[in-house]
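Researcher: Quick one. three chains, 937 residues in total.
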Amino acid sequence: MSVEVRNITKKFGGFTALDNVSLKVESGELVALLGPSGSGKTTLLRTIAGLEFPDNTGEAQVLFYGEDVTSIPASERKAGFAFQHYALFRHMTVFENIAFGLRVRPKTTRPAEVKIRERVGELLKLIQLEPLAERFPSQLSGGQRQRVALARALAVEPKVLLLDEPFGALDAKVRKELRRWLRNLHDEIHITTLFVTHDQEEALEVSDRVAILRDGKIEQIGTPDEIYDHPASPFVYDFLGNVNLFSGRVHEGSVTIGDSKFDVPETSGESGADTVAFVRPHDIRITREANGQKSFPARIVRSNAAGPVANLELERFDGGGRFTAQLGKEEFQQLQLKAGENVFVELKNVKVFSDDFSI
Amino acid sequence: MSAAEKTNAPHRRTEPPFVRWLLIGIALAFIALFLVVPLVSVFTEALRQGFGVYFQTLHDPLTLSAIQLTLIAAGISVPLNCIFGVTAAWAIAKFDFRGKNILLTLIDLPFSISPVISGLIYVLVFGAQGWFGSWFSDHNLKIIFAVPGIVLATIFVTFPFVARELIPLMQAQGRTEEEAARVLGASGWQTFWRVTIPNIKWGLLYGVILCNARAMGEFGAVSVVSGHIQGQTNTIPLHVQILYESDNFAGAFAVASLLTFLALVTLVLKTWVEYKNTALRGTAFTPVPIGKKAV
Amino acid sequence: MATRQLGAKKLRVLPGFKLTLGFTLFYLGLIVLIPLSAVFIKTSTLTWAQFSHTVFSPQALAAYRLSFGASFFAALVNAIFGLIVAWVLVRYNFLGKKLVDALVDLPFALPTAVAGITLATLYSPNGWIGGLLAPLGIKVAYTQLGVFVALTFIGLPFIVRTVQPVLEDFDPELEDAAASLGANRWQVFWRVIFPTLTPALLTGFALAFARALGEYGSVVFISSNIPMKTQIVPLLIMNELDGFQYAKATALAVVMLVISFLILLAVNVLQWWSNRYNTNNLA
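Model:
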């Protein structure tokens, strides 16, 4: 039981938005489509909803719980879609917006007015906007509009809920509140959900699984832990957080950077090959004393300790360039680090990708 | 800058008072000379021989038949151009296709054509020596120098009015609301009536008001295709001309005052729609002034 | 737009594409394109000698001269005063501003025949304004000056309505920036504000000019319609029509249409030009 797309290809003029994409979302799952702009994530979502149609008719398929809906128009697919800019009907009240999907049903399947009121009432309660039922969209805040858009999509009891950048147009604080709310909502109603985002933090925090898209292809799909800890490519690694690059040489489970040598747990690369090692800033340890070959010296160029963590910019002695490190406030204070000081640097969780060095 | 100046002037930087009042003075004098004085004089001239003559002219059977014909011409051309405007705007704003810019230019074309030529083209097609002239006369149908010609010429000169208001409006509104309606299960008609029409109603009304004003006031084009037969092929503006040229000035201005009144009502309605539109947040449309190119 | 080949049928999210575009093209063809093509087809039946005899006759040449001259000066006067009116309406507050703003569209709303008889009466030697000018030896009605007055009246709203929105959108920070760099008020206007208004001003000028070229109703009463003197081209075409000289009328119409299309093209180029800053920003 699932929502599935197979072999979707879609071009806009000369631009390939989707390149033979297949994806399966299990029933009740919450999946994030994560990627930079132009990676095809919104096009994929719109294709599932029936708002775009694949170019490769015949091969491409969209399946809702085993049923092929590829040639079924959007109006009959029963997919709930929340648009990036909400697309609320500006001339209707919140109540009427939510009721719309029920009111446009053919007479035979349209619920009675009492039922409609009841259903809309439930949804208003769910989105905690009962007092605002008679307001117009223009009288709501961004976060409220998003919740109305969600309620409107849910009103028709969709088979799948599709959210296009649901928090994209909101400010940082509302964003965080609303995504927690969405996760709770999903835990409550368990509807199969896909949402598009370009914010990796959002994707990692909210979803059961994350699909990372790049240039119209799915680069990697997995649980947030899997993709964060075991990124399949430098692109994924880079997209999920800040990263430092060190050029070096792989040798039997370790990488040589300058005169130092660090363990690489997951290397498959051949010995002696030139490579680029990836290290996250919070995987860099700063010490006052050298640790033999397992550290190298660097000078602190700049330090910034505002907020819960301290960020350092450092420069290697051997001319290998600058990199950034992040450490806990407490550790930072214990070490009493200052700009201009010389320290030793150890690298943890070094990642080396054997085939593709580009990001 | 003083606080008083800040509250008075919408813009923080402004000219010295002398320059300001000079410019306001020039603008008002220009408006007064070219707009207010003519406006006042229409009514003065109309009432020069008293209310008796005024109402007598308006009650004249020939005047009444001119009014009737004008209402018929507007009554046919406005709804037709309204349907065309909505249809064209739907096709152009909601879909992508090649040649859209050419289509937009062609729709605006009747505005850049002299009214006299607008009449002439129908004479060439339907007149006695025209393409279909003999066919129509064989079937005893008179187009030119008859009511159908007047209606056709009116349709032509008012052709772009509704379309040019709606096209930019619907383009600006995009298609996401319609898409949302479709995903929620609405049929095409339901989407159109429940989502599109409410969103464009003010723009539509605006276009209809302007279209109607031109339809009722058109002179040149109608003059070419009308036979100038009083009581039969005379519209209100043509009736004004006949009265004026027969030196019945009071009569001419009495009838003209009707049209002037129509113009004033048009301006009031137009201003009301603009005001209503800004008051209703969310349904905003930017009125396309008649002079400005729409798209 | 979302389309897909399904046999010959395209799938679209919103319905009615073929229906609406079909109707649009049908109606456009029926009302505008077919009748308009008649002018060109009719003219093509003339020999070059017949054609040039009509369109280069002394009477026609005099009519072009008056049409272009009067339209040009009318548009020029409107450009100057229209700019002032637009400026005053956007920048200053005064009593009756809303009324003036609404009144600007009067020449659009007022039927041209009414404008024609009113201006003819006002500017005749015993009219309100003509009476004032007569002692000075200035005759307006039934002269070329009268044609100019009528064309100024009908062109009045064009400049105001094209300049006004641009002026409303003008970012006052730009003025502040210029002032903070030491520009005086006149320099701010001339070097910062005026250049942004130029495309709109030129567009408005072209539109007013084009409208004036074709104008008939408001001119017919105030012009005495004397060939070679006060006859503009539309009046000349009308004269030929009244004499059932359809071929001649059509030949003249072709000349006017070609000129109108050229102005239309110019306006399109101008609009493209005035948008160039915006598109550059996007790139």
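The interface with chain B takes residues 49-51, 73-81, 83, 85, 87-92, 100-101, 104-105, 136-138, 152-153, 155-156 of chain A (CB under 8 Å).
Researcher: Thanks, that's what I needed.
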